Amino acid sequence: MSKLGAVVEAVEKHGSFVLEQVKRARSDEKFAQAVTERWNKVKAEVPVAKAPTGLLLPRLALPEIDEPGEIARYLFGEGLPGEFPYLNGAYREMYLEPLREIETGSYGNRKSPNGDSHNGAGRVSRAKIPGRPARPNPGSITTTIEDFSLLAEAMDSGSLVSLGPE
Fold first, then answer.
1. Helix pair angle (29-45, 3-27), 10° resolution
2. Which of 46, 70, 118, 163 has its Cα between 20 and 30 A from that of 8?
3. Paired residues of 118 in beta bridges
4. pTM (predicted TM-score)
């Protein structure tokens, strides 16, 4: 058998295993209770972070399901982050900013060697907004509602100045 054939066979076997667990969760009350208890425990332990808007959000988005068969399908078929089959992330906290940075609003802000401030996407932010006072530390970005208001006014008036690369 080729390597690809072995992979296909393994995927099909895993799919069959998931279906068996779904059927078991729907027919075996003890297993259904164990799966539901695990699901409720996972949901209860998900930390909550405060978004810059003040909205409290769970750090891990989980589907709103309560039927044991669907819970089994999710846990065994997709898995939680850091758990087999690793469809939701190879690491438990993969793609998440450290909680401390989210709470302080400093996530995604880095300073390059030449002092430019970078956003999370790796682009250098060099726009100068008229009416915006200079920051004491050009490497730290704290965006406020007033910043957005000034930016919108500058864009409307056409007075937004881009400093571009130095």
1. 100
2. 70
3. 110, 124
4. 0.55
